[in-house]
Amino acid sequence: MAGGGDDELKLLSTWFSPFGSRVKLALHLKGLSYEYVEEDLTNKTRLLLESNSVHKKVPVLLHRGKALCESMVIVDYIDEAFAGAGPPLLPSDLYERAIARFWLVEPWFRMLDGTRTRAEMTEGVKQMLAAVASLEVALGQCSKGKPFFGGDSVGYVDVALGGLLVWVRASEALLGVKFLDGDRTPLLAAWAERFASLDVAKAALPDFGRVIKHAKMRRGAAAGALAGNN
Ligand SMILES: N[C@@H](CCC(=O)N[C@@H](CS)C(=O)NCC(=O)O)C(=O)O
């Protein structure tokens, strides 16, 4: 594994963060070793507050002590800074690169566990179903019939969406709605199965059962806060 020494890498994240999962995926795909610091978002470390003083959010990647924030900015950086390690995530062709980035302008997958009213939930589900329909088109266009958005191997869009996969599955289970459906979005449904079975996904993504428990707890806390406001 690369990393360590001059390439010292430290990741500040929290176990359930889908954005942190993106960075973990990129680090694992490049075969980079890194120090992991688990953040408690209710009691953030001084290092996190200082490293991401604008948003104070995880993930933050420190490379030789310099802080990088925003998951996809970090993934981009890892791809370029460690170009020699592992397969490239972004295509070398400029046009193809632009297409991959285009698909990530929208924050496709909404986290629905924080929705408080039925109307909010119904609207969220509607938006998610529209989003996955667009992503089905994206997958056809990016993969050109190959297994991943990146073609034969996992690329930038795969990392961006793959990082959110366990949360999408958790939303499906909690809401009783199938977003990645074999009939409506056959390409995406097959992609999700393929992605989840990769060793990097197993290493970088959070445990489904633990995410479900965490989401239920957050939902309970949100409902409690709402009741307290009434
Ligand atoms: N757009 C950011 C989103 C990061 C984000 O929302 N992180 C959450 C955890 S999943 C966080 O740190 N929340 C703490 C807070 O909002 O105080 C990214 O892609 O990195």
Shape annotation: globular
> Which residues sit in consecutive blocks of at least 5 with pLDDT less than 50?
none
Tell me the CATH architecture of the largest domain: Up-down Bundle
Small molecules held by this entry: glutathione
How many β-strands, per DSSP? 4
Q: How does the SSE layout of this entry go?
A:
Blueprint: E1 9-13, H1 18-29, E2 35-38, H2 46-51, E3 60-63, E4 66-69, H3 71-81, H4 94-102, H5 118-143, H6 156-162, H7 165-175, H8 186-196, H9 199-204, H10 208-229
Parallel strand pairs: 1-2
Antiparallel strand pairs: 1-3, 3-4
Helix pairs in contact: 1-3, 1-6, 7-10
The protein binds glutathione (GSH).
Pfam families: GST_C_2, GST_N
Function: Is involved in the conjugation of reduced glutathione to a wide number of exogenous and endogenous hydrophobic electrophiles.
Keywords: Cytoplasm, Transferase
In short:
Residues 93-219 form the GST C-terminal domain. The chain is of the alpha+beta class.
What does this 3D model show about the protein?
Keywords: Cytoplasm, Transferase. It is an enzyme of class 2 (transferase). Belongs to the GST superfamily. Tau family. The protein is α+β, with helices and mostly antiparallel strands. It has 2 domains: 9-82, Glutaredoxin; 94-222, Glutathione S-transferase Yfyf (Class Pi), Chain A, domain 2 (Up-down Bundle). Helix content is 53%, strand content 7%. It has 10 helices and 4 strands. The protein has helices spanning 18-29, 46-51, 71-81, 94-102, 118-143, 156-162, 165-175, 186-196, 199-204, 208-229, and strands spanning 9-13, 35-38, 60-63, 66-69. Strands 2-1-3-4 form a 4-stranded mixed sheet, with helices on one face. Helix 1 (18-29) packs across helix 6 (156-162) and helix 7 crosses helix 10 (208-229). It starts with 8 loop residues before the first strand and ends with a helix. The model has no long low-confidence stretch (mean pLDDT 91). The structure holds glutathione. Glutathione is lined by residues 17, 19, 41, 56-59, 70-71.
